[in-house]
Amino acid sequence: MAKSLGIFVTNPDNFHHVFGVVKAAKAKGSKVKVFFTWTATHNAKLKEFPALCELADDVSICVDSYKKQGYDINDVPAGLSPKEMATQAQHGIIIEDFDSYISF
Amino acid sequence: MEYKKVCLMYRHKDYAVDGMRSALGLAVENMYSYGVVMDTEIEKLDEHNLESIEMLRDMEGEIYSTVPANVEKNGFEPITIEELGEKLRDMSIVIPYGLK
Amino acid sequence: MKILNVYRSEPDDTVKKLVEIVTRDRESDTFDLGADNPDYSVLVDKIFAADQTICWW
Questions:
Q1: Global ipTM
Q2: Contact A91 B26 (CB under 8 A)
Q3: What are the tens digits of pLDDT across the range A53-88?
Q4: Is the Cβ–Cβ distance between B20 and B53 less than 8 Å?
Q5: Does residue B28 sit in helix, strand or coil?
Q6: Three-state secondary structure call for residue A45
Q7: Hey, are the CB atoms on B39 and C22 less than 8 Å from each other?
Q8: How far apart are the CA of B77 and the nearest CA of chain C, in angstroms?
Q9: CA-based nearest distance B78→chain A, Å
């Protein structure tokens, strides 16, 4: 049984690494959760973002950061549901409930 | 139950304040949570952010800085790189936050 | 305690110093994400084999 993997993203320029790791982990049968915060919430507007949401088991973004980066919180990015516009508690879940952790 | 210990490190001034918010978010989730402002001098924090740091301290967290000006301006705890390295050895999670 | 140090860019003196202290008397491994076309499958294997992963700036 593959370990589960939690990914915390704070760097807006690392989406390609996030996607690469998620693809590789899913190919190994791993459960993967990703949480984007602060300027990394810009990643939710990338054209590849919905594909990441499709591939990973759980993707969410910090709604407060998203708002501070200038977006309307009612403008839910493709791939996310309103409940995945979330809080820093998601980061806590990644640390507590997943076997392995990496931040980007 | 053993509580997790997390250290977030900030080297870019545009990421320090939000990174402290992330540290507070983890303290609220029952983790020992620490932030370290490295290399960069940041502005004097406003009342709201200083209150957030007080909340973090109430939950046994702390904000450190390797930069004396940040210690003077914002009341952060001073720390050297060597001391930080030793502290990181004791952490469950280490997070180089944001941009360099 | 096995530590995996992942580097997104060339580590500077500060990062080198921290890594030296964190990995002292411990088993450790590294992965260079700054390389062209990093092998993410290898990276994930290394993450799962480590007790802690630190992904440096």
A1: 0.96
A2: yes
A3: 999 999 999 999 999 999 999 999 999 999 999 999
A4: yes
A5: helix
A6: helix
A7: no
A8: 19
A9: 25
CA dist., res. B60 & res. C38, Å (int): 39
The verdict on a CB contact (< 8 Å) between B86 and C21 is yes
Alpha-carbon distance B30 to B25, whole Å? Answer: 9
Tokens of B19: 């990174």
Give the DSSP per-residue string, B11-27. -SHHHHHHHHHHHHHHH
Query: Residue A99: phi, psi to the nearest 5?
Result: -65, -45
Element (H, E) at C20: helix C13-23
Amino acid identity for residue C48 in this structure: F
* Pair C2, C45: CB distance under 8 Å: no
Consecutive H or E run containing B52: helix B47-58
Closest alpha carbon to A22 in A38, A42, A43: A43
User: What class, spelled out in words, does domain B5-97 have in CATH?
Assistant: alpha beta
- What pLDDT is attached to residue A29? 98
Looking at 3.90.1150, 3.40.470, 1.10.3470, 3.40.50, the CATH number of the domain A5-103 comes to 3.40.50
Token couple for C12:
């500077």
Round the average pLDDT of chain A to a whole number and report it: 98
In one-letter notation, the amino acid at residue A86 is A
